[in-house]
Prior knowledge:
The structure is a homodimer of 215-residue chains.
Chain A: H1 11-31, H2 38-45, H3 49-55, H4 59-83, H5 88-105, H6 107-118, H7 127-156, H8 165-177, H9 179-182, H10 191-209
Helix pairs in contact in A: 1-2, 1-4, 1-6, 4-5, 4-6, 4-7, 5-7, 5-10, 7-8, 8-10
Amino acid sequence: MTDKGPSMTTPASADVRCEILRAAATLFAAGGVSATSLDQIAAELGATKGKIYYHFGSKAELQTEVCKYSVRLMHMAVAPGFHAPGPPGDRLRRMARAHVLAMMCNRPYHRVVVQTYMGGSTSGASGTERAFLDDLIQMTDAYAAMFREVLAQGMEDGSMRRQNLSITLNSVLMMLNAPVFWYHPRPDETEAERNGIAEQVADMALGAVLSPAPG
Amino acid sequence: MTDKGPSMTTPASADVRCEILRAAATLFAAGGVSATSLDQIAAELGATKGKIYYHFGSKAELQTEVCKYSVRLMHMAVAPGFHAPGPPGDRLRRMARAHVLAMMCNRPYHRVVVQTYMGGSTSGASGTERAFLDDLIQMTDAYAAMFREVLAQGMEDGSMRRQNLSITLNSVLMMLNAPVFWYHPRPDETEAERNGIAEQVADMALGAVLSPAPG
């Protein structure tokens, strides 16, 4: 294993990759993955298709890389809350807020994730595409595992209602993902307003899992 | 207005329509709308494409009719809880349970609704397709309005937390819709198990909106 060689990603080429991913995410999110061509993405970039192919082997690879980028962003945003000390409820609240904010800030990427998981756009996937997808599934599983663990801890210590853990996890994650469907940023929206939205969604997610107050 | 004439839907032709809708929903849900052809649906039915075209003008019309059928089923299931007497929390719980059960029982139809709203498969819609879609949006709006009203009543009487109503509605509906993503019926699943799932999801939705118990 060497860190040199033609496949080494230089900072400049990393920038170009990010630029391509951003253009792809924007067009995929707006028009749907299947209706968007590499030609359109190249045009958006003011570049040739060759430039895209230099960095990504196919549209399917580009789609998966958009998704992986999205999951990486979410993971980085949520991990500090997961690793923080304190009771499970407090950590879940912090994770939930971070999840919603990260999603609002990077909405196009997350819309592509939803399309990838939902739209059937991966049906008929080739072997290579299947491998990309397996990679992505592993990443989202690792992401969800943080929420699963903190929920399990809350049920264990009694601060959260003891109920089916998988249903709880899926329900909470879906509520936290909901803004990807309904959130449309206003041009004059303030950071305080964005925080308020994240706060309300996090409060609702907590309410869905916390044990009722005694009395 | 007359109830006779060539466009009258006879019981037999209504059955055929339902059969076509069921085949379309099953294939659309499994393989994605855009990847499914009318030929495949005809093959599934053991019929010709002509039979489908006799009842539905286009694939887009078939897709929208699958969705409308889905929303109609949900509306019928949820309306009794909405119109029931009693406090908003009790009515919401009944509506939530009915929503989840109806969705679990008619999963393929609901997956098509999700694809239609999410997958970008309606981009580039023609005028006629746009009209179908407007119709569908009106129906889902009327459906959501039942939940909006009961949530507003709960906030009004203080039994539910006073917070942004649209965010509350969207979050609750998304949590209630989540089973369409994660629910896969087991062949040996009992009615009691299905009821248990619906019960847990309804409990979580209630927890997300109810005011914390005083004390």
